[in-house]
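Morning. Coffee machine broken again, so started the prediction first thing and wrote up yesterday's gels while waiting. Chain of 105 residues, entered below exactly as on the submission form.
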Amino acid sequence: MGIIRKLLAWLSVPIICLFALVFYAARPFNPDNNRILARVVARFGRAVLGMERPLEGWENMPQDRPTVVIANHRPGTAEIQERRVSRSGSIGRAHHHGLCSGVRR
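Came back before lunch.
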């Protein structure tokens, strides 16, 4: 059953992208296009793979302004995480493989 789920998850990405081409053609140069596509792929992938993403403290997050959330993540889910990023900016991340060696704790 695990192999079927993984195969379905991998095959769903190009199929979703084909449908997204129509969406992109209807809204060219819209900065939200990539964000919506990423959200659909991430949610579908998590549903197919049976992954849950528990979230604690959502009620403490300000909803009226953009925020930056810095948190740990499980290594196996890094590729299909959904990010909330403001329209005008993007967030990069550095793994703990020596890239953040100057950070003190």
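The helical segments are 2-26, 32-49. Going to sketch it on the whiteboard this afternoon.
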